[in-house]
Amino acid sequence: MTIRGAVDVLDQQQHGREATWVVIAAMNEEGVIGGVVSEVKRAGWSVVVVDDGSRDQTAVEARAAGATVLCHLINRGQGAALQTGIDYAVRRGAVHLVTFDADGQMNADDIPALVAALDDADIALGSRFLGKIEGATAKRMALLKAPVLMSNRLSGLKLTDAHCGFRAFRASVAPRLRMQQDRMAHASELLRKIKTSGVQVVEVPVTIRYTAHSMAKGQNGFQASASCSITSSAHDHPHHPPRRSRLDRLARVLKRNKMPFHIVIVFGCSRPARSRWSPPRRRARSRTSSVSVAVPTS
Questions:
Q1: What's the pTM value of the predicted model, to 2 decimals?
Q2: Pair type for strands 96-101 and 167-170
Q3: What does pLDDT average to in each consecutive run of 10 residues of the chain (298 residues)?
Q4: Would residue 135 count as lying in a domain?
Q5: FRET pair for 55, CA 20 to 30 Å: which of 132, 196, 198, 222?
Q6: Has residue 101 been placed in a domain?
Q7: Cβ proximity of 128 and 141 under 8 Å
């Protein structure tokens, strides 16, 4: 290949990467977000960071590193932040979308493999257990594996990893995979929508590196299992939208009280027994959709 031909190939690759948007949801990540964005931008991908109500300089650091930054005026949760970023990227003409964590535990070198897998599939899910896990203790490994069986049973899929947030999908299927769960329950919701919508899915090995920072802020195995159980009881039908307010209250209770696994399973039942953890019953009222306010920063 001539030098001119090599340059043309590199230009085509760069143009293709610009059409792939990496969506990062971030909250109070000023210490690491700049490095995360820089790593992704150096590889040529377009990046949008959604600052989900941070109280620090997350937005400033992300913008300084070269990302497009959108800001939620209040904290909405990871699911809502990702959906805001996805909507923005689609409006900007994205061909492919990649969801990426803000805490530095994902490796930008794995993005090309995920995107390449979209040649034969609609969505590519990263799998830590097909790839490599760095820095995790034996206890954490057990907690990471715990939700897989439950998630597969509830979603109807057969996956090796239940809630790895490293994923890529074609922008054309984004409307069918639109997330309505604002918080961590969006991961289980997405798997069920993959099953019910009929999109073609493939798993791709990825490397996840756990640090003291990411483990302190990340979701543990109990919380992941709680997400599986809670979302399984929600209606997944266009005429019966999920009861997000109740689900969010339950998620906050689980996180605040660090509830054990056997109590989490109770919430997965279609008619959970009332207890002091059960939300109070209220009279039926009309449903209202929560509004996400995203403010682009200059």
A1: 0.71
A2: antiparallel
A3: 40 71 97 97 97 96 98 95 98 97 95 97 95 84 76 82 91 95 86 91 94 68 45 44 53 54 35 43 43 48
A4: yes
A5: 222
A6: yes
A7: no
